[in-house]
Amino acid sequence: MGQNILITGAAGYIGGSIVADFISRTAGPIKAANISAAVRSEEQSQSLSKLGVNVVKVDLSDETAVMEVIVSNKIDIVIHTASSMDSRLASHLIKGLGRNREISGKETYFIHSSVTTLFAPEVGWEDGEVRDTDPLFEKEKEMGDQNPVRKTNLLVVELAQTLGVTSINIALPFVYGRGSGQWKKLSANIPAHIRSGIAHKVVYKFDKDGNPPTAHISDLVALYGLLTERILQGTPIPSGKDGYYFAIAHTVGWWEIMDGLAKALYARGLVEEPKTPFWPSDEVAADYLGFPRMFLRAMGTTSGQLVPVNAYRLGWQPKWDKERFLKNIDDEVQAVLDLDKTKVKTTVFDSLLSGEK
């Protein structure tokens, strides 16, 4: 009998793309698994039900409801993409897995989705090279849980260990590309700049350049699939305190991205010139982009010297690199023009830190 997988944020950009990938499998351990998709609204439920997947409408902030979903569906693996900001959601899911482990006697796994910006100097991390094989948990513990995303990271490791659940933390970089999910197909950062450029006839850039870690959505989904396959096959993989995975395919300069967007939009007659002046102020940038002021710099100028090791040791092979991304940057513009017509939107910041919006 196949194992049971629950994907949260299944109506979101990342979670929806994972669902689409998993149910498209024609062979292998994921094909043999039973896939459940967690959503929040009836509209989302009806949309995803067309895929033939087991759709679960649940409020992840309701611990009793989450426990019921996990136990009644005998969930062995949770892939959590719904939120890295609210530690309650991760707590409820892990407690449910712990309870199911007690009942079934089977191992249970929690794959958490965090962000790489936690390990950048802009949010207090020390300068210098950071590998995902470094003692990241110990350093995060030392820094404390004032940052809500870091608080969730710490909770995931500690609570999962207490309850005998195996935890894995995928640190998400700046993600681009058109998603393949049923509901939300756009990421957060690039679409925000495209919308701002179209609305104000100019593409701005910050006065500080950066070189953010990035990945195409298809490569990111492939990593989730690879990790899930290893779990289903019973292959030992780094987990718990050692289970951080930087999902980084390549890096690219922020100014290169903005210059590429300006040229693509200018070629379509959507901005007045193919140049990228600096933002007049951070306040204007926050207003135009929809980013909270406190996270603005981290979202628009971050660099960091992050080195992914664990994913590549497992055999992850991203297909997108910097050159391919910049060469096809007009695809990002086309995606916004196509998909904004669907009116499936949320705030940019919620989209970045929450898969189920």
TrEMBL record:
Domain NAD-dependent epimerase/dehydratase: 5-83
Name of the molecule in the record: NAD(P)-binding protein
InterPro entries, per database record: Epimerase_deHydtase, NAD(P)-bd_dom_sf, NAD(P)-dependent_oxidoreduct
GO molecular function: aldehyde dehydrogenase (NAD+) activity
SUPFAM superfamilies membership: NAD(P)-binding Rossmann-fold domains
Record's signal peptide: none
GO cellular component: cytoplasm
